[in-house]
Design goal:
single chain, alpha/beta
Length: 254
Amino acid sequence: MNARVFLVGAGPGDPELLTLKAFRLIQSADVVLHDSLVDRRVLAMASGAEKIDVGKRCGRHSSPQARINELLVEQARTGKMVVRLKGGDPMVFGRAAEEMAALDAAGIGYEIVPGVTAATAAAASLQISLTRRGIARSLHFLTGHGAEGGLPAHDFVALTRAGGTIVTYMGVKTLPGLVAHFIEAGMDPQMPAVAIENASLASERRWAGTIATLAGILAEAAPSGPTLVLIGEAVGQNGVDDRDAALTFLATDD
């Protein structure tokens, strides 16, 4: 089956972090179904395409996933080249499996184009090795937001015993519960933790503390953009401490 639909990772925000393949497909697309958080400079690359915002934002009007699936099938059946443009990487908390299932059921060919996920962009910006030799033996990507709201039922004991770096996506609102579970599971309350908002963009901000203090810091800062929380001994190896809690770092020109 020749691909008519491309599930493309738009990366964490900075257009220069797009892959060459993503750039080529965006420029060639007839239709682009995009997340709301895809940077406008990336969308501008699709100058000849019809652009459809199908983004899902917490607390705001959004497109149900079932409707996105239908749109992908409908647009592909017209013979158009369709790019489904997702923030970060399509296969990391991007619900790509549901879109692939809908395309499979309709007999429509597709291709996945990976992108830089927010965790690696955050690590680069913070200059943190997420798998620092001798310190972090494993790396765990968690979602802080369950399918029905609230905190998912992670195995906090196993995660704590693993002794690695934990990166939590969509976890600002559930961070107090996340922290409580980790401390109950035996994690040291002084474990280093950093939050980073809008990683790779000019509006990037980061806050540092420990798992015991970071939730309070974020409650006061009230970040509104996509925010990751990084936890682990490796996070404390870049020299960031509580005194850096409100620093803003410029990544690109707007």
